[in-house]
Design goal:
Distance between the termini: 41 Å
Helix content: 25-40%
Oligomer: single chain
Order of helices and strands: EEHHHEEEHEHEH
Strand order of the largest sheet: 3-2-6-7
Shape: globular
Number of strands: 7
Largest sheet: 4 strands, parallel
CATH topology: Uracil-DNA Glycosylase, subunit E
Structural class: alpha/beta
CATH architecture: 3-Layer(aba) Sandwich
Number of helices: 6
C-alpha cells in the first residue's frame, strides 16, 4: 500500500460552487489531472450540463469550470490506498476546509461527487459552515454502473448555483 496525495484546489475569485471528490484515482494521479480516467463521466457530464463541448485540453476543461463559478477539490489530503477504489482508502488525512471557506467566502454550495466524499466530510468535518449548503450527488466513477441520463438528472441540482 502506498501513500497518495490529492491535488491543489482549482478555484478563482468567481467560484460559487465547490465540487468535492474523495481523492484522485490511479489514472488521475498518473496524468496529474482531476477525473482523468477515460470512463469517468465527470467531464462529459459537466460539458452536457453546461451545454458546452468537452475540451480535450485539461487546462481548457478547468477554465470551462471556472467560467461558470465551479471550484474543484477533494476531501482527502492524503491516504494509503491500493488501486483506485475508495473502499481501499486507509489512514486518510482531511484537507483544511475551515481555512478554505474563510479564504473563499463566495462559495455558497458544496456538491459531493459520490458517497465516500460525502461521508468523510460529514463525519470528519461536519456541515456547520454559515451560508453554505451541502448536497451529495451520485459518483461519476466508472466503478458505479449508472446510466448517463441518470447522472445528468441527479447532477442538474448544480445548475441553479452557477454563474
Amino acid at each position: 500500500m502506498r501513500i497518495i496525495y490529492s491535488f491543489k484546489p482549482v478555484y478563482d475569485n468567481k467560484s460559487r460552487v465547490l465540487i468535492l471528490g474523495s481523492i484522485p484515482g490511479g489514472e488521475s494521479l498518473r496524468k496529474k489531472q482531476y477525473y482523468a480516467h477515460e470512463r469517468n463521466a465527470f467531464w462529459p457530464l459537466i460539458s452536457a450540463l453546461l451545454n458546452m463541448p468537452c475540451p480535450e485540453d485539461y487546462q481548457a476543461r478547468l477554465n470551462m469550470l471556472l467560467s461558470r463559478g465551479i471550484a474543484l477539490w477533494d476531501v482527502i489530503k492524503s491516504c494509503e490506498r491500493k488501486g483506485s477504489l475508495d473502499s481501499n482508502i486507509k489512514n486518510e488525512t482531511i484537507n483544511d476546509f475551515a481555512d478554505f471557506f474563510i479564504a473563499h467566502t463566495k462559495i455558497k454550495h458544496v456538491f459531493f461527487n459520490g458517497g465516500k466524499a460525502y461521508s468523510l466530510f460529514k463525519s470528519r468535518i461536519g456541515f456547520a459552515f454559515d451560508n453554505i449548503g451541502f448536497t451529495k450527488l451520485g459518483s461519476t466513477s466508472p466503478a458505479h454502473a449508472v446510466t448517463f441520463e441518470s447522472r445528468i438528472s441527479d447532477w442538474k441540482q448544480i445548475l441553479p448555483y452557477l454563474i
